[in-house]
TrEMBL record:
GO biological process: aerobic electron transport chain
Sorted UniProt keywords: FAD, Flavoprotein, Oxidoreductase
FAD/NAD(P)-binding domain ranges (all copies): 4-304
rRNA-binding as UniProt keyword: no
A Pfam family it matches: Pyr_redox_2
Name of this protein: NADH dehydrogenase FAD-containing subunit
Species assigned in the record: Streptomyces capillispiralis
Record-linked Gene3D superfamilies: 3.50.50.100
PANTHER family according to UniProt: 64 KDA MITOCHONDRIAL NADH DEHYDROGENASE (EUROFUNG), APOPTOSIS-INDUCING FACTOR 1
Entry similarity comment: Belongs to the NADH dehydrogenase family.
Required co-factors: FAD
Keyword Oxidoreductase among record annotations: yes
Gene Ontology terms for molecular function: NAD(P)H dehydrogenase (quinone) activity
């Protein structure tokens, strides 16, 4: 009987994990199913581009997975029973409910926007955490007349990229950004100087050390009572994980992220792995990995290789989960590559300008290429799954987990 592996979510992490598992395990021994609500792979790191009307290359998941042996199921996940090892889904084609049984589950449902509970945000603000939100914002931006105001709330990577993209694409609009801290305060001095230079060149007004406490249709209110005009408010203050995990028996954090060990295995359920934004995984120095593509893809590699190792009796992976740089697009002509320590602290070195923009574009294309060509890249080494009694497998769980944690 084939070992049933179900991967939930076909974003960067889920799609990469499914493809890597297909490359690692013998096709006769495993049945790999990738469940996703949409038939296309969405380049989430480009949603700010989609919002300003740029055409993104379509990437049908069916084409990307052709020949891999991975079965694609277009369905919305409605529940996970980690004790019974089943997943409840709602099929997109006919709307029917179904239950899928698994032997190993890879949870990669990711995250969406987080309104932080600020009054009026859900009703009046726009988000770019996914394709529907980006398209909705794009339609609204098309309808704006010259001189109208767009306020981006959130001074992190998503907010900076959104503000610069909108200001470059629509120089006739009054674009501003509200940041809780200083603009680019996580960057090196060189990075901050370049960021301010680009903002000034694009005419973006920056409201630093400003917290938004309420959103209305045409304005926002800040913590000190100031009213800032905003025909459109774009909310980019962080992400919230998919709520499914919180409703399961899996051990999760207060924010709903699944607690995993160094191999991305759930600490409460040995047959469940969590990757990407859904996982509370630790990086260098015991610091949690931030929600990002830079974190997600390495966790997908780690989980896939760990699953393959455990099923085939191989050696557990010992790849470090670390950071190298932060890649920021500042419109289509400018960019910023901030080099960082392993635990994501900025160092003095940074690339700026047109070269950095090209660098960031290559990173985005490389990530999408890796998803679109799951059977290329690293050598294919399909190993046979060991046929061991369940009792023997259970007996080795503590040993393999302890070894993985010691090497992580």
């Amino acid at each position: 009987m084939q070992h049933r592996i179900i991967v939930l979510g076909a974003g960067y992490t889920g799609a990469v994990a499914a493809g890597r598992l297909a490359r690692r395990l013998h096709r006769d021994d495993v049945a790999i199913t990738l469940v996703n609500a949409e038939p296309d792979f969405v380049e989430r790191v480009r949603m700010h581009q989609l919002a300003v009307g740029q055409q993104l290359r379509p990437r049908p998941l069916g084409d990307m997975l052709a020949g891999t042996g991975v079965e694609l199921r277009i369905a919305r996940v409605t529940g996970v029973d980690a004790d019974r090892r089943t997943v409840a889904v709602l099929d997109a084609d006919d709307g029917r409910e179904a239950e899928l049984a698994y032997d190993t589950l890879v949870y990669a449902l990711g995250s969406g926007w987080n309104d932080q509970g600020v009054p009026g945000t859900a009703e009046h603000a726009y988000e770019i955490a996914g394709r529907p939100g980006a398209r909705r914002l794009g339609e609204r931006l098309k309808g704006l007349e010259a001189g109208q105001s767009v306020l981006v709330v959130g001074g992190g990577l998503t907010g900076v990229e959104a503000a610069t993209e909108i200001a470059e694409a629509r120089p006739d609009l009054d674009v501003s950004l509200a940041a809780r801290d200083g603009l680019g305060d996580w960057l090196s001095p060189k990075g901050r100087r370049h960021l301010r230079k680009v903002f000034d060149g694009l005419g973006i007004t920056v409201h630093e050390h400003t917290s938004v406490t309420a959103v209305e249709a045409d304005r926002v209110t800040t913590a000190d009572g100031t009213s800032l005009p905003a025909a459109v408010t774009v909310w980019t203050t962080g992400f919230a994980v998919h709520p499914i995990a919180r409703a399961t028996a899996l051990e999760v954090t207060d924010t709903g992220r699944i607690v995993v060990d160094g191999t991305m295995r759930s600490v409460s359920h040995a047959d469940v792995y969590a990757i990407g934004d859904a996982a509370m995984a630790m990086g260098p120095g015991g610091k949690p990995l931030r929600m990002s593509c830079a974190s997600g893809i390495p966790t997908a590699w780690q989980a896939a290789d760990s699953i393959a190792a455990r099923l085939t009796g191989g050696k557990l992976p010992n790849a470090p989960l670390r950071y190298y740089n932060q890649c920021v697009s500042l419109g289509r002509r400018e960019g910023l590559i901030q080099y960082v320590t392993a635990d994501d602290r900025s160092v003095g070195a940074a690339l700026t300008g047109r070269f950095a923009a090209v660098y960031k574009e290559l990173v985005c294309k490389g990530a999408a290429w890796g998803v679109a060509h799951p059977m290329l890249g690293l050598p294919t080494r399909r190993r046979r799954v060991l046929r061991r009694p369940a009792a023997a497998t259970a007996a080795t769980t503590a040993e393999t987990t302890a070894a993985a944690e010691a090497s992580a």
